Amino acid sequence: MISSRKDYLEYLRADSIARKRNRGIFCISFDKVWVFQRRMRRLEYLTNCRKNRVARMVAAYQYNRLGRELGFSIPINVFGPGLSIAHHGTIAINGGTSVGCNCRLHVCVNIGTAAGKLSDAPRIGDNCYIAPGVKMFGKIEIGDNTVIGANAVVNKSFSEGNCTIGGIPAKVISKKSSEGIITKGFKKPDE
């Protein structure tokens, strides 16, 4: 979670590297997904670190408006640094979800709670790749370096990590990890 201006700038840098964006004019103006990610990080910074309500309200309005345009329903303070949203399209994330650093997220992803239990949201580890169409729900835990295959329905934990899961319901289909599939925008000090 962003707790200082230094964290805010580090999150932006990590997200930029993970999305493989340079500082060209196209990146700054025309890539709406990148603009959305920047607005999300700004709103997180203003919410967690600043007391200026007017700036926070303006940032929230801009963030929510662009989110509706792109089809995103992503609350703040859910994703760690190094987030990479591949394309615009339907993405719905529950506010209780916790996702580690370096997550690659595709379209038509739904991460939610078990029916009737608002606090039972998934916990997703670091360096995870979430393919198009993935549905995850309930109080589950996904380990580090996990690949979740296209259209998988994940309703149980895979906390061991370093594997590929897929299917309906999801099961381990390979011991191949996310190494080489995602770009790590954020590197922990021990890596």
From TrEMBL:
Q: Does the keyword Transferase apply?
A: yes
* Keywords tagged on the record: Acyltransferase, Transferase
- Tell me which Pfam families the record gives: Hexapep (PF00132)
Q: What class of enzyme is it?
A: transferase
- Listed EC numbers: 2.3.1.30
What domain of life does the native source organism fall in?
A: Bacteria
Its BP terms in the Gene Ontology are:
cysteine biosynthetic process from serine
Q: Does the keyword Acyltransferase apply?
A: yes
Q: Which GO terms describe its cellular component?
A: cytoplasm
What Gene Ontology terms describe what this protein does at the molecular function level?
Answer: serine O-acetyltransferase activity
Q: Which reaction does it catalyse?
A: L-serine + acetyl-CoA = O-acetyl-L-serine + CoA
Concerning its family, UniProt says: Belongs to the transferase hexapeptide repeat family.
- In Swiss-Prot or TrEMBL terms, this protein is called Serine acetyltransferase
Q: Which gene encodes it?
A: cysE_1
